[in-house]
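User: I'm writing a short methods note and want a consistent example. For Na(+)/H(+) antiporter NhaA, I'll paste the sequence; you return only the structure tokens, no commentary, since I'll be parsing the reply automatically.
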Amino acid sequence: MTSNPQSPPRVLGRGSWAEARRIADVLRKETIGGALLLIGAVVALIWANSPWAHRYQAMTALTVGPHALHLDLSLAMWAADGLLAIFFFVAGLELKREFVAGDLRDPRRAAVPVAAAVGGVLVPALLYVVVNWGGAVKGWAVPTATDIAFALAVLAVIGRHLPTALRTFLLTLAVVDDLLAIVIIAVFYTAHLSLLPLLAAAVPLGLFALLVQRRVRSWWLLLPLAFATWALVHASGVHATVAGVLLAFAVPVLRSRGAGPGPGLAEHFEHRFRPISAGVAVPVFALMSAGVAVGGLDGLAQAVTDPIAVGIMLGLVVGKPIGILLAAWLVARFTRARLDAGLAWIDVAGLAVLAGIGFTVSLLIGELAFGIGSDSDGRVKIAVLAGSLIAAALAMVILRVRNRVYRQIYEAEQVDRDRDDVPDVYQQ
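Assistant:
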């Protein structure tokens, strides 16, 4: 079901039925990934604070890989640089599909979630800088990221009756948030830049783009080119996860004219790699990165009162909701966008608080800003975990209050599912 092109845009609109089905499938996979992520994080925390903590440290510091190619990295770095490249590849595919063939190809639909994502980056960063002015300001980007898998795991606990509009808005917000995160990493957290490997990366990337534009799916051709692109970007000094986004943007979304039925190449790759991203890459990264020795109650108290931790927690718990709500309200005010039937601004507030759950990318930025294993990195991990748990608890309270309304909207959506006459936007 699509709205009249002349009607005002909606802040929390249901969108088309084809998009709703696709997003429901994405959310199911990410929810499972969120549960695995939480398991990985809990195991890492328990292990790092157990009598066997030295074994955890030895495992994360274990170096593997060919020295000749400058890929002799610790397992922790392989998780951050390698596995998260898969995560950002899937995020890049999702982002491109949203803007090429999804509901966000309509600029009026895209305006509100994009503005909300930008607001959800700017305000937390500003609060962090205010708290750490004259100190460790290089961690300003840590509280700017939303972890969609973690957030969806919380949504699964809240209930399965949340309206499609809320889930769509959250997913779109997180996808744009991922794009902003990769731009921040590429621009602000590149310690050194070697132009020769970066220019050389254009060769395998160009060949990869040429093959996928011709709809080639042969893994024995594409995977070596993808790995070469990743390795050269890594050697250039730009964080290697950027390669994942570049490769994703090269993949076509629409099927070629005259092609038979079936998914487009971007959708095909997404189906193949999302389970790997959600089920392996992100949970293993959590296992490798979330382990921090708390040091008992005294150590925890010292850690959470450190300015770095205060800035991160304030950014996640306060900055994210304020930034998202303010940006969404301003865009709605000036574009005359309206909320979908049955929904209210308290629902936007619940999602905005939920977006304060930052984990995967927040931990990655913390490692880039302060160095893996440093004292400041330990404070980042504690602050990200604490801030995310507080945001999750607050969001659960807000959204549970509206559960009866959500159930009514959800039941109405189920009745309307027979309106399934939407053309396939992925075919051209």
